[in-house]
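Re: [ENG-882] Designed sequences occasionally contain unexpected residues at chain ends

Forwarding the minimal case from QA. Structure tokens:
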């Protein structure tokens, strides 16, 4: 459960990303009569993923006309000769009644209404509702409307079938925006996704004295960050086996080229998530077992407003704001602030004063990149560095030269693991692992192969 978002050739700022993972025990649904994206039985759990995004164009980048969505599981189903996706894009307007009303728990009430230009201000709390905080945060953006969510035009039906196969189980989709996001503009969009295949469901037989035989099911859930989704997509396509048939390695390499080389890792392409929230919301009759999470994300707490409704709910926080020590723009802004308040400094002085522990060399690379981007100007050769005269105070992160800096790092994304550029980044890796258990008096479900690397 997770989603990577990018727009080839564009730098995008996701000012706010709320990722809701709803896990439920569904009522029995006949596969022949199913009308929803979910076609499950009571042997299984039903997962609905909801992503609320406030997407901005920071300036210095072309208009954002389309978004690529990369998922770690199979979000498609076969209908006769065609394969259809189970992902939808919804405008985040004031109509929050019906099935979407439960996804609004993170925002203040009553729901915001758009103005005549189509802009809406959404207010949300830094901590879960019920923690007693009074002043919410606010973000304003246009209500984005989209064309249908579809497979990328450069992928064939054979490509999408291969990605959905049991050997790969990945999904890549494209969302065209009705009105592009212009430089300096932002917009709100909701993505609702329903995975069709759940790996690693293990049945365990239990017998109770006063009941019939009962099966206990266990499911290991992994919620990862966009960086992990991107990396694992590439790794899975590098692992064709003898069972995949002739020609498959060549097809995998072509898909990698479309999605990664010419997509996520294309020139001038970068995604920055400023405030990333992850909410895990589970039915009360599903037991949440062992839970671990890595650096890069912080456990905020339980969500009282949802638990009062009978759910078990947890909230984590990540993104650039919670990983400032390793964030590219936060470190660049530290340099700007120091020079603004203390005057021109030599490169060595800045690196010594500001570089995080053990990152002196990487910080010197950052300073040189800032000079090339025009964010720092040497007074003379090898002399002190000053700020350009037209760098406005408190607007540094949206300055086009900051976008140029991001592009210089994005150009080496594929080699980040082996480069000093990896020390400061737009995306901050994290992973959340937990075990779910539930009971059902039925026969065990089919167990799908387990992919050890997770999403």
């Amino acid at each position: 459960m997770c989603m990577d978002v990018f727009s080839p050739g564009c730098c995008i700022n996701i000012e706010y990303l709320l990722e809701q993972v709803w896990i439920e025990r569904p009522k029995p649904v006949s596969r022949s009569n199913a009308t929803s994206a979910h076609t499950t039985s009571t042997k299984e759990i039903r997962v609905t993923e909801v992503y609320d995004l406030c997407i901005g164009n920071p300036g210095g980048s072309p208009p954002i006309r389309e978004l690529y969505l990369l998922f770690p599981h199979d979000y498609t189903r076969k209908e006769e000769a065609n394969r259809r996706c189970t992902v939808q894009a919804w405008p985040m307007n004031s109509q929050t009644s019906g099935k979407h009303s439960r996804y609004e728990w993170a925002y203040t009430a009553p729901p915001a209404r758009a103005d005549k230009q189509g802009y809406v201000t959404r207010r949300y709390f830094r901590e879960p509702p019920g923690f007693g905080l009074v002043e919410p945060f606010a973000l304003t953006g246009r209500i984005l409307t989209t064309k249908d969510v579809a497979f990328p035009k450069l992928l064939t039906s054979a490509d999408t079938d291969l990605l959905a196969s049991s050997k790969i189980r990945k999904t890549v989709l494209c969302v065209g925006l009705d009105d592009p996001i212009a430089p300096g503009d932002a917009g709100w969009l909701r993505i609702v996704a329903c995975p069709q295949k759940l790996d690693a469901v293990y049945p365990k037989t239990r017998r109770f004295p006063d009941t019939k035989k009962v099966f206990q099911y266990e499911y290991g859930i992994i919620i990862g960050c966009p960086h992990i989704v991107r990396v694992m997509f590439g790794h899975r396509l590098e692992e064709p086996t003898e069972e995949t048939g002739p020609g498959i390695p060549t097809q995998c390499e072509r898909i990698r080229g479309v999605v990664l080389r010419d997509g996520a890792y294309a020139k001038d392409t970068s995604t920055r998530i400023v405030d990333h929230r992850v909410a895990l919301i589970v039915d009360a009759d599903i037991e949440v077992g062992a839970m671990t999470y890595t650096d890069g994300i912080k456990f905020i707490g339980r969500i009282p407003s949802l638990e009062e409704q009978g759910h078990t709910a947890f909230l984590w926080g990540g993104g650039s704001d919670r990983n400032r020590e390793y964030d590219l723009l936060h470190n660049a802004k530290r340099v700007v602030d120091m020079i603004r308040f203390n005057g021109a400094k030599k490169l060595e002085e800045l690196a010594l004063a500001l570089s995080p522990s053990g990152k002196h060399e990487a910080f010197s690379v950052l300073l040189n990149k800032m000079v090339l981007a025009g964010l720092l100007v040497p007074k003379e050769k090898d002399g002190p560095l000053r700020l350009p005269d037209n760098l406005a105070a408190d607007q540094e992160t949206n300055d086009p030269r900051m976008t140029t800096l991001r592009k210089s790092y994005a150009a080496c994304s594929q080699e980040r693991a082996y480069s000093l550029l990896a020390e400061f980044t737009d995306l901050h890796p994290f992973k959340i692992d937990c075990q779910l258990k539930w009971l059902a008096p039925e026969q065990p479900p089919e167990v799908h192969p387990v992919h050890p690397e997770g999403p």
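QA comment: On inspection the terminal residues look reasonable. The radius of gyration is 23 Å. Proposing we downgrade this to a documentation issue.
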